[in-house]
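Q: Could you fold this chain for me?
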Amino acid sequence: MVGRTVLKEYPRSDRAAGFLGLALHKQKRYGEARGYLEQAALSKVAFAEREHLPHFLGWCCYYGGDLQAAKHYFEIHASHWPNYDDTYYGLGVIALDEDRVDDADEFFSRALAIQQGTSNDRPSTGKILARLGDVALRRDDFDQATKYYEKTVEVWPDHYEAWARLVRLYYRADREADAERAAAMERTARIRMGRLDPSDEAPSAERTATGEVAPARESDAKPDSPTAPPSAPPSAPPSAPPTAPPTAPPSAPPSAPPVM
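A: Sure. Below is the predicted structure, expressed as structure tokens.
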């Protein structure tokens, strides 16, 4: 690994630590990545990637279960890069985990507005719409949740979690034909995304035709599923960061736990 080699030769190089942290982050080794990314983010040395490291630290802390630190780092990144949709998405996921439904709605809505205004990334748009559907479920607004999930699969047909939600919502609304179609589309999407072997048996009507629609919880989504935050944010920032870093380096979260 290039970052580890450079860091071995130059152990005091904060930029090399940052590159190593990003490489570990991409491998989903979030606990290991956090220490290197924090070293680089707190550096007083100016280098181009430094301003975006709090974004990646936010996801490292989130997957490590440290929601306070994750929120802290996402807020730092948002203060310097207010038009980065995935940072607001991260803040929205944290708010939803903490049952701050109104805050989650605000963050996801802002992420959606940024995404629609700056990109044609249909999967990213779809995952945000799905989270807005989750917000509607928390509010027991089943009609609004249905609309969001329908929009999700319109934008990104491979979002199998949204199809699964629609199955339950359609059965709840006595829309049996729509529920059966959604169940078939969920299976197709899982196969296309590599989440289901084509030889596996399709879910039976008894398992899918439930009239209950459980409120969406973060535990319902695996870290690498479409409704969960991306396993790794984009490796490149949305645009080149300023040549100079902020006047003060990103601060560590208050009472941050020991780095893994």
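A (continued): The chain has two domains: 1-81, 82-240.
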